[in-house]
Structure formats: C-alpha cells, structure tokens
Amino acid sequence: MDLNTVEDVIRRPSARPGSDWHAGDAWLAGGTWLFSEPQPTVRRLVDLTALCWPSLVPTDQGLEIGATCTIRELHEFAPPQDWSAGSLLRIGCEAFLASFKIWNAATVGGNICMSLPAGPMITMSVALEATYRLWATDGTERTVAAGNFVGGNHLNALGPGEILRSIHIPAAALRKSYAHRRFTLTKLGRSTIFMVATRTPGTDDLTLSITAATAYPIVLHFDSAPDADTVRDRIDAIPADVWFADPNGTPEHRRHLARHYAEELRAELGGAR
C-alpha cells in the first residue's frame, strides 16, 4: 500500500539511530505490516536494514538474534546438536499466517513489536526465556524479559522512539526438553492457542507458556512435577479478561484448549508419574 503521508525516507541512518527521532517517524525493517494498511500519522521512515545488524550469532552463552533477522533466515538456521530445544525456532517460523514470500521480508523483531497475541516470535522467545535489548532515543539501553514485554493486544513496553535491537536466548533454555501444542481453525490459519512446555535436564520442573489464547503471554512455572489438578487450578486462576476473543476463538474455547493441552504436555514431559 502506498503511504501517501510519508515525506522522507532515511536510507542510511546513524549506527545508533534515534538521536533525531521525532513524532511522525516509523522504524522500517521488513515493512510487512507497515505497508499493509494506511498509516496516517507517519511522516518519515527510518530504514533499519541498511545498518546490516548480524542476523544470527550463536555463542557458548546462547543465540543472539538481530531484530532485522528475517523469518527465512531464522527458519534456515541449523542449531548446534546439544540445543535440544533449537527446533522450536523453526516451529515458530512455521506458525506464521504468511506465505513463503512474506518470510523473505518479515523480521523477527517486527513480529515481536507488533505484539499481537498470536505472534509466533513472541511464543518462541517467551518459551525459550529470551531477553530483549532495547535502545532508547537518548542513547541509553535496557533489557526486558520476553515474558514481560507484551502487555496486551498491540501493546508493549516500548517507549516513544524506542527500538528493539536484538533478542538473546540463553543456552540453558535451548538445552531444555520441550513439547508444544497449537490449534488453528484452518491448516494455515492464525493460532487460536500456542502452548509450549519445557523441562530442565536432570530435574522434574515444568514451565508452561500460553500464547495466542491470551492477550499477553502467560508463563506458569512449577519447581517439581505437578499433578493434573495443580496444573488445572493454575490455568483456572488466570483472570477471565486475560483470555482473548476474536474470530479464531472465544475465551471459553481457548481456556478449554489450555486445560486440555496442558495435561497432554504434562504427560509428554513425564509429569504423569
């Protein structure tokens, strides 16, 4: 879509963009949402792709994902063999309601900053205990846990002009065992619910993350293997207004799926004993 209010495009921003940020600016990476509908308040685009941030940097400490990393790049990444949860990166990419052509442009950071309940990069990063590195316009930097970033549908922790620079996934999370469940109304449709369970090797702990079904990610952690009633009680304790409602499912339907999948995931990771 043509953005007929745009007066200028900054194609080569400074290495640390933001010092000249003003109302009416918009960060441009993949642009798959930005160009999908009218943006009447946008006057200037700042192109982040020209900064050539490294897309994927694996280290002994984990995986650093540049915010401008495309979904295609993440999907093609081959994680080290000892990262048993590394395949969740690819699974998250395959949960996109988008064609392969969109994968070539859409970015990991863009999906996170859109902060839709069904954003699969949010699901992936929350389940893998990621942290987000944020740059402010005054040159300061802060780190936010993925589970605390999204506050609701299209709501997040970003301040005016603040930018997501990178996503860090710790190696310890990538070495966990995991299982997942996802429900959609159609084979390639938007997620009605996307749940991931993880367990630390050598322990009987359990962490359940619930996304798409709720307005913001819900993470339930158990220090030891819980029984079915304990898990159900934790899900039932989620406030009624947190369950999301849209054409893909009612809050009641989503809560039912969460209960059902939680028991499957608990059993799959060994919690049925």
Automatic annotation (TrEMBL):
<dbReference type="Pfam" id="PF00941">
    <property type="entry name" value="FAD_binding_5"/>
</dbReference>
<dbReference type="InterPro" id="IPR016169">
    <property type="entry name" value="FAD-bd_PCMH_sub2"/>
</dbReference>
<dbReference type="GO" id="GO:0016491">
    <property type="term" value="F:oxidoreductase activity"/>
</dbReference>
<dbReference type="InterPro" id="IPR016166">
    <property type="entry name" value="FAD-bd_PCMH"/>
</dbReference>
<dbReference type="InterPro" id="IPR036318">
    <property type="entry name" value="FAD-bd_PCMH-like_sf"/>
</dbReference>
<feature type="domain" description="FAD-binding PCMH-type">
    <location>
        <begin position="1"/>
        <end position="174"/>
    </location>
</feature>
<dbReference type="GO" id="GO:0071949">
    <property type="term" value="F:FAD binding"/>
</dbReference>
<dbReference type="InterPro" id="IPR051312">
    <property type="entry name" value="Diverse_Substr_Oxidored"/>
</dbReference>
<protein>
    <recommendedName>
        <fullName>FAD-binding PCMH-type domain-containing protein</fullName>
    </recommendedName>
</protein>
<dbReference type="InterPro" id="IPR002346">
    <property type="entry name" value="Mopterin_DH_FAD-bd"/>
</dbReference>
